[in-house]
Structures are given as C-alpha cells and as structure tokens.
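Internal QA ticket QA-208
Title: Verify multi-chain structure generation after dependency bump
Assignee: T.L.

Test input:
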Amino acid sequence: MNKRQFLASMVAWVAADTVRAQAPMWSPSQKWARLVIVGGAEDRVQDRIILRKFIEYAGGPLARIRLITAASGVPDAVASSYSAVFADLGAQDFAVLPLNSREEAMNPQLTSEIMKADGLFMSGGDQSRLMQTVWDTPVMEAMHKAFHFNHCCIGGTSAGAAVMSRHMIAQGEAVLRPRKDIVDTDVGLGFLPTAVVDQHFSERRRLPRLLSTLASRPDLLGVGIDEDTALVVERGRAIEVFGKGVVTLVDMGQAQTNARDVDEEAQMEMLGVQLHTLPAGHRYSAVLPAPKGWPAGLRRAIELLVKPGPVYL
Amino acid sequence: MNKRQFLASMVAWVAADTVRAQAPMWSPSQKWARLVIVGGAEDRVQDRIILRKFIEYAGGPLARIRLITAASGVPDAVASSYSAVFADLGAQDFAVLPLNSREEAMNPQLTSEIMKADGLFMSGGDQSRLMQTVWDTPVMEAMHKAFHFNHCCIGGTSAGAAVMSRHMIAQGEAVLRPRKDIVDTDVGLGFLPTAVVDQHFSERRRLPRLLSTLASRPDLLGVGIDEDTALVVERGRAIEVFGKGVVTLVDMGQAQTNARDVDEEAQMEMLGVQLHTLPAGHRYSAVLPAPKGWPAGLRRAIELLVKPGPVYL
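Actual output:
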C-alpha cells in the first residue's frame, strides 16, 4: 500500500477501537488476522449475515476463498452446497480444496494454494476426522503461516469451529450437570491457545458439558457459540459477535473446584465461575480502556481470546 | 430447656460451625429455624434422604409434622402418598391440613394447628394456586409466626419450593438463552426475601430462565435446585445441600446487563454473572471466616440466602 492508503488504514484502526462495546459495528475493509468461529447451522438461505461477513473479512468479492471439507463424511455434498452459496454471495474466486485424506494433506500444490488464500473456511462434520487428516502435515503448517503471516481469514463452522482451539472437545455426552471426565478432548489446530470452543451451544444445552471440560482445565477460557452465530476474533485487538444467538464466555480464572478430589460419579463443586453472554452486534476491545461498568474479569477473558497462539511450523 | 441442655446446645452450635465446607455433615438434634427447599421429584421410595432430613430437622419421630397440599390439583392423592411415606419413615405425629381454599385459610383452628407444628411441608403442584389460597390470610401469618418465632421447619418441594422466596417465578417458558420478559413473577411466601428459587433446575435446563428473571432483578440471588435435591437454609447461619443433584447459585451482584435497553426480541448482554454449583453433603457457613480459596462473592451470596425476611403479620 502507498502512504495515503497506510494513513487511511491507521485512521480506520483508531476509529475501530474508539467504537465502544455497545456501539454499532464498524466494518473494516482492510485485512486483519481474523478467526470467524461459527457455532454451526449458519444461515445459507436467507440473510446469510455470517457468510457475508466472512467474505468481507477475507477481503471482499475478489478475495481468494478456499473451502476445507475434511471434517465432513459427505464432502461432495458440503462442497456443492457452499459453492452455490458463495457464488450467490458474489465471491468470485472460490474453490474447494481437495483435502480429505492425509495423503492429500502432504500435497505441495495444496499448501501453496493455502498460502495464497485470503480466506479459508472449514465445514462441519467431525472435528476428529479433520484433525486426523491435517495434524502435523504441511497443510496444517500452511494454515498457520497463512493466518499468522498472511493475515488470512480463517473461518469454521461446527466441527470447523471446535478445531480452532488448541484444547479441543472431541466428543462428550450432553450432561445435565457438570460431571468429571465425561468429555474427550484432543488437540485442535491451536489458533486459540488458551480457550476451548464448544458449538451448537444454547441449542444443545452444552453449558454443563463445557463446565465439565473446564473443571479439569480451569486455566482455559470456555467459549460457547450458538447456532447461526459467529465469534470473530481479531488477533491481539478485539472480538465481535454476529448472527442470531449469543456467545457465552465461561471463565474459571477466579473459580475453585473440587474436581480433582471427587470420583467420577460424584457431583462437582464449582465456586465462582464467571459467565458472560455476548449478543450479536457487539464489539469488545482488548486494547482500549475498558468501558465503565465492565465487571472485573471480562477484560482478562477477552485478552485470553485475542492472544496469538504459537505458529506451528 | 435446663442449663445443662442449654450448655450442650451451645457446644453443638460452636461444633457445627467449626465444620468446614467440605467436611461431613453435622446433624443437630435441636431445632433451628430452617427451610428445606426441595427441587421436586424427591425420592419417596428408596433412601428418602431428603424426607428423612426434613423429619430430623423438624425434631425427629415425635415432631408434629403437617402437610400442606394447597398447590396440588389432586390434593387427596398427594396427601395419601405423603401420609404413607411419612408413616413409613417413623413420623408418629403426621397429619394433612385441610387447606385447599381461601375459606379454609381463614379457619382459626387451622392457624392454631400451624402454630403448634414442628414441621410444615408443602407439596408440589402450581405455586400460583398455593399463593392464591394463602396470600394475606391468617394461615400465612401463622406460617410466618411458626417459622420466625417457633423455629418450625418449613419444607416444600417443586411448587412448594418456588413459594419460599418473596419474588416468585409463577411461570415462564424454557428458553434456550436469557430473554427479556419471558418470566411471569408474583409474590411468594417471602421466607427468602432476597432470592428467587427455581426448581427441577438442571433437569429442565432452567438456567436461561433464571437468568431471564434476574436480568430485571439483579439485586436478587438466583437459586436453582435440582430434582431430588434439597437446599437447607439455616436462618442467619448457614446453608446445606442434600440429595442427588446440585444447587446452583446465580449471582448478578457484580454483573452488568443491557436488559433495560433492549427490546423483547433481542438477545441480552449479561456480563460478569457469577455461578456456584453446590453438591450434596456440603455446608456453607455465613458466620465463620470463609475457608481459604473461596471466591469473592460466594460469602455474600450465602449471606443473602440466610438473611431473615420480615415477619408477615
């Protein structure tokens, strides 16, 4: 960019963060390193607010957007569905990456495609299938380079959202109350190093499951994302919420639990868990002075979310 | 009581509060003013831990225990069920109060029965039916005198639990997320002046409903009680939990919400809600120094719960 463009982007940068949490959303056109984490079942028929936002954050209609279907058991169907929607939304450079096996994840041509992408979107399916395909492959390394160095916008829905955190919920029953050891966790892509993401959150009543996960890892921030709702994480700067539902942050930073001392069948004691529900249209800065009235702990939670993870190389 | 008995009770009093939150429960035989608030569906067939506790706290097998069925649409069936259980548990002075209309709630003989009771147990049903029957009647006054002056143990399950608080949830749909104005509230018996009780809590996934209630009354402490679970409130001293599930305290004391500013259809922002899940077998004192590691806010929540309400005369 030239000097004038640079100056304009700086003005926009300051303007963006001057917007208070409750003010209307500001839509930047320039690219920041962003994660668009969708709780599943995003609207693909009507307003399609979330997919529009993803295109915008990838850089607009001309952005190179690539779809990853590796989580899905029916990748072809998923691919054709998203191809139609992205075309309909005016994305002119959209393609589906041939990435459904570990062999394909070694393909240098694929890594080069990823490195050139402005936006990568991961479909739903099974998060473990996705991780088994890409873990410790050149493709995963390319995704990290794309995000950290090229400011590629990384989106994912449902299983594609679960893989965003380093500590990933692989599976776990929908319990009524927090229970010890009912959640299987595994390693995710690691874009969020200090959080754990759960999706379909309010719809599948997953707060007890997320609390169960945090009981053994109280250092992590729990992030519950509703269906047709997106949490946007701007690396190092702010978070935003879009869509129909809410994003629920669950913070055990000041909490105390007896999880280590009780056996699996016993009910757990969890004291001092902090909960925040964030509705659509709100932006929460990690760098501006906290607005008056913000409860202690919220700022720290946002800082945990925007904290950049290590680059996997 | 004579001096020796008095001394023994003082020793027991000190011993009880010396028990730390995580220690085994101490079972006093003398009477304190207690509420036994049951989340519904208490076991009446197997261990019957909660009804046994109620008998114990009323004063044991010889205690005068009276049942109030005014919440129920089928009072006779409820009466015969509880009569059988209480007899089976060895309660030797159990009777059902004839109290299913406002006319009966004016009956001086009934108020005298209530004033003599050691334990009053309110069945489930519809909390509004119960309140319509007793509100502003001599029976309600007698219940307050019995609790506040005679240290009568007041128990209630489901609807009988909902009426314990002054601010009572009359009805409200099971929402997925906190929503504005979806809960109808009314005036309850007022034994808990600064709390609002919800029952069948984990089983019916009622946290969003309780949060919805608190959004407009953040000064109140939310109390969610699971099925077959009892919260025991010892006036001015401590709380205890018994049974199969947990008691969830929801504290908006440090929270911030935009409930006043959004319209009914919008999602609400709730920041800094504090949550405590308390399992069975735990006692939490409001008078002893807080155990090490207790999160800020828990002590205040317990103090809110044990705070005596005004006597309705």
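Spot checks passed. The longest helix of chain A spans residues 3-18.
Status: verified.
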